[in-house]
Amino acid sequence: MSPVRIYSTLTGREDELVPLHPDGVLRMYVCGMTPKFHPHVGHARLFVAMDVIRRYLVWRGFKLKYVQNFTDVDDKIIQRAASENRDSQATANAYIDSYFEVMDRLNVQRADDYPTVTTYMRPIVEFIGDLVEVGHAYPSELGDVWFDVGSFRDYGKLSRRDLNSQLVAARKELEPGKRDPRDFALWKRAKPGEPAWESPWGPGRPGWHIECSAMVRETLGDQIDIHGGGADLIFPHHENEIAQSESLTGKAPFARHWAHAGLVTLAGGDKMAHSAENFTTLAMILERYDPQEVRYFLLATHYRSSLTFALETDGLDGAWRVRGIEDARSALGRLRRALGDEPLSADGPVDQDAVKAFTTAMDADFNTPDALGVIFDLAREINTGRVAGQETDPKRRALVQLLDVLGLNLRAEVARNHQEVGPYVDLLVEVRRKLRDAKQWSLADEIRNALTDLGVTVNDGPGGTSTWSIER
């Protein structure tokens, strides 16, 4: 097979993915959610994309450890907690639970580890202390600790910014104890009424960027293969991670491949974000749409491209829909028809041409739109072969396998739908049979048409027999 190639923001090109460590285990870290409210579509876009990368690499035979953090202490979490009249940890935990609820429904596999700031405070404090000791950070008399950006020669290599331009762009007023406007906080002194932890510099809490450097080192080591996150994290968050980690360990690169997912934007071009309060929660979307439809919608655009979220409302009755998810519903219906209702053994040969075409697409930086194109070509071949009376099981097995790599488990959904509605459909089909026997053709047709509108196709056979299948 061809090598897997992944685009890295650091190099600006697609590079072959070769394990960095002698044990052959890929180490993958993804910057997770700051749980200050319920997850929105932008979160789903990132974590579904990273889930597919992980699934595909495992399917291709790589061993992989996947870590994703939660920033469970933050200014905005503290503000949210105050508005909800509860402590910040309870607030963070509630929205972490909300994250798992919707991501489980979207079939996002659980990470191998979910470190949080509050449970990794000791290694974070030690990391900061080590940076001070080697001269890349300095404490202020007020109890803050700052990273000395000028001490790291390669600062800006990820975002392609140079220190001089940053100095011009930086605001001129220096915070107390800060030597350079480009320096960033590693430790922030405690403020009255806010959560705080003890440290050699006095009570306080970590700055935003240091947590990931410490968590990566504790869970995966000094260097990792893949670091994922949203494109809005390139600067300053990921730039600062590189500076912190490589300054302390002396090992470069900190992460060999930087995989950044494109942002979800609204129809007007604004980024969807909690801070802008222009988001639609995933829970709201999943009240209207099936999780598989939402997942398909997200995969239909390459993970590095921006994704437009267009929420349309009906001026008459206030009903709303998402442009694109409606198309996903129709597309998944076609795939379900290709899968069919006949039992399918998991054992046996699969169509290798389809597998090869799918692999070629996904090897090119996880190109899910092209991979879906391969899947639809395969579905068309299955339907054509079925009509011609040809053997389709190898193609159907391939279809099931390739959908599973993308996390689209339509066979399980078809089986679940049959189990839940089967007895009721059977009853209606039997009533329809009796109406046909009594030559009540109009009423029989009404039942058939109503079932069709609900996505159930009734096929009449010889001798008055009928079978049915769920089409979507």
Question: Can you characterise this structure?
Answer:
There is one protein chain. The chain is of the alpha/beta class and 472 residues long. The chain has helices at 41-59, 75-83, 88-105, 121-133, 163-169, 210-219, 234-249, 282-288, 291-299, 325-339, 352-363, 368-387, 393-405, 410-437, 441-453; strands at 5-8, 13-16, 25-30, 63-68, 137-139, 145-147, 184-189, 204-206, 224-230, 255-261, 264-266, 307-309, 311-313, 320-322, 456-460, 466-470. 44% of the residues lie in helices and 15% in strands. Mean pLDDT is 89; it is low at 414-419.
Quick structural overview:
This protein has 472 residues and is an alpha/beta fold. Helices cover 44% and strands 15% of the residues. It folds into 3 domains: 5-266, Rossmann fold (3-Layer(aba) Sandwich), CATH 3.40.50.620; 289-408, Four Helix Bundle (Hemerythrin (Met), subunit A) (Up-down Bundle), CATH 1.20.120.640; 417-470, no CATH class.
Key phrases:
single chain; 472 residues; alpha/beta; Rossmann fold; Four Helix Bundle (Hemerythrin (Met), subunit A); 3 domains; four-stranded parallel beta sheet; four-stranded antiparallel beta sheet; 15 helices; elongated
CATH class placement of the largest domain? Alpha Beta
Give me the CATH superfamily of the largest domain. HUPs
Strand content: 15-25%
The computed structural class is alpha/beta
- Residue windows where pLDDT falls under 50 for at least 5 positions: 414-419
Distance N to C terminus? 35 Å
- Oligomerization status of the protein chains: single chain
Shape: elongated
Main sheet: strands, sense, barrel: 4 strands, parallel
* Total E-strand runs: 16
Q: Count of helical segments?
A: 15
| Adjacency order of strands in the biggest sheet | 4-3-9-10
Which architecture of the largest domain would the CATH scheme give at its second level? 3-Layer(aba) Sandwich
Q: What is the radius of gyration?
A: 27 Å
Structurally, the number of domains stands at 3
The chain-level mean pLDDT equals 89
CATH topology of the largest domain: Rossmann fold
